[in-house]
Design a protein that fits this description.
single chain, alpha/beta, 7-stranded mixed β-sheet, 4-stranded mixed β-sheet, 7 helices
């Protein structure tokens, strides 16, 4: 009988032990951490498993399921994409996760110990996640044209216009010719614009719903194309990028757009909460 006096983290630990013991065909799910180390806006183990499966599928499609890929995961957090990437790096490939958080990198280095995983702290400033770090716009410690894929889940949602532009150029620099990037955004396009009416009443005020939080109407540092939510302490907490802003990123980085999947934050059916953009470096 389950001890009803167990707290949430202990229940989570026991659930994971039981559930992982019953995994039959998705071996990489053994790596899902306990709730204390699940971040990125997703706490439930079942939601982690869902998102891992989603991005594992996208990676498989865009890498043609090769097992020797080199994948750079920007803003790796506590390793969700590391888990999704494992099937594609075990035969001579390498997954590299980078993050501004020393805590998250330290956890990953202890938790993901197989030789196809590598984690590196990047000492750069972010006004929301790394206020104590002072350097800005530092190149990633990754060789030119060395990566088959770059992933970034909810990273460009926390970058101002200057940083977003700089690091999109870094994506181009580290990708091999014909390499691809899977990046998530709050993309403020026509689908987003159409959804605003469903979130406001006759006076134009926001409904008090969870979706009301996902309206971006405040210019970030005076930008016309980077807008932040009305309720954040710093713009970098949650920013959206207009269609013109996305086109500017593509133009300055010399990356091309292969696919755009609308996020369900816009109140439309979608693969993921945020928009997913699949980009490609020319061959």
């Amino acid at each position: 009988m389950t001890d009803t006096h167990l707290n949430g983290p202990e229940l989570d630990r026991q659930f994971l032990e039981y559930d992982k013991a019953n995994v039959r065909r998705t071996r990489n799910l053994r790596l899902i951490p306990t709730v204390e180390n699940r971040r990125g806006g997703k706490l439930a183990a079942i939601e982690w498993a869902h998102v891992i499966g989603l991005f594992q599928s996208l990676i498989a499609i865009h890498l043609n399921s090769r097992p020797d890929a080199h994948i750079l995961d920007v803003g790796c957090g506590t390793g969700l994409v590391a888990i999704a990437s494992e099937p594609f790096v075990q035969e001579g490939g390498l997954y590299t996760g980078i993050d501004v958080s020393t805590t998250d990198i330290g956890f990953c280095q202890q938790h993901y110990t197989d030789p196809w995983f590598s984690f590196v702290h990047v000492d750069v400033h972010n006004a929301h996640f790394a206020t104590e770090q002072s350097s800005t716009q530092a190149p990633w410690p990754i060789a030119d044209s060395s990566q088959d894929m770059v992933t970034a889940l909810s990273v460009w949602t926390h970058l101002n216009e200057a940083d977003a532009t700089y690091y999109m150029k870094e994506v181009h620099r580290v990708l091999k010719p014909a390499g691809r990037a899977i990046i998530t955004f709050f993309h403020l396009d026509e689908v987003y614009t159409a959804s605003i009416a469903r979130r406001t009443n006759a006076t134009g005020r926001y409904h008090k719903t969870n979706q009301a939080a996902w309206i971006f109407d405040q210019p970030a540092y005076g930008s016309a194309n980077w807008l932040h939510r009305y309720d954040v302490k710093t713009p970098e907490q949650a920013m959206g990028v207009t269609e013109a802003g996305v086109q500017s990123l593509l133009h300055t980085s010399e990356l091309s757009l292969r696919e755009h999947h609308h996020g369900n934050w816009k109140e439309v059916p979608g693969l993921f909460f945020q928009d997913i953009l699949v980009l490609e470096k020319s061959s």
